[in-house]
Amino acid sequence: MGSLHKIALGGGCHWCTEAVFQSLKGVHIVEPGFVASNSENDTFSEAVIVHFDENVISLKILITVHLYTHESTSQHTMRNKYRSAVYYFNEKDKNKSTQILMDLQADFDKKIITGVLPFKTFKLSDEIFHNYYFSDKEKPFCKTYITPKLKFLLDKFSDYVEEKKVCCASKV
Predict the structure, then answer these.
(1) Are 79 and 120 in contact (CB under 8 A)?
(2) pLDDT of residue 170
(3) Residues 6 or more apart in contact with residue 107 via CB below 8 angstroms
(4) If pLDDT is split at 50, 70 and 90, which confidence band does 63 have?
(5) Which residues constitute the domain of residue 159?
(6) Residue 60: helix, strand or coil by DSSP?
């Protein structure tokens, strides 16, 4: 394992986001919680911090998966709670993330609203919500919202999915 790199991603419920990124090869730690950035984005919004091995999975793949597994083109009424963002920890990742979003825009019919924002602070969610999906896949929320996202991952990003983690999602 190479040295781990990290990026924070927000856009939907951190229960869903956590399960999506826990399912990917090269992702070693996913911390669910709430991120605040700066200025108009200084309130806490649900997000995850993803610790990953860049030798196994690239930032581009992580951002691509992120855009396709939440409403990255919708300015819906819950955006304060579910800010669509890539939170960077350094200028290099800011520049890379900005370029990745610009490059991916051609793949979407609508404008991507996902912002590239500086990471300022983080509040970890309560322990009871960690590993939410994989601790009980039969919960109604999991079956309704998370399992379909994992099926989508298996369908569209199978080369990057840790199949032993999501095998049951393909059978539901």
Answers:
(1) no
(2) 46
(3) none
(4) very high
(5) 4-171
(6) helix
Domain count, the chain: 1
Contact indicator for 71, 11 with CB cutoff of 8 Å: yes
Q: In the numeric block, which tokens belong to residue 79?
A: 């955006």
Q: Please, are residues 64 and 162 in contact by the beta-carbon 8 Å criterion?
A: no
Measured CA to CA, the distance from residue 111 to residue 65 in angstroms comes to: 17
Q: What is the pLDDT of residue 172?
A: 42
In this structure, what CATH number is given to the domain that contains residue 51?
3.30.1060.10
- Count CA atoms within 13 Å of residue 1 on its CB side: 10
Hey, what are 76's tokens?
């819906």
- Banded pLDDT at 22 (limits 50, 70, 90): very high
**Full-model pTM:** 0.92
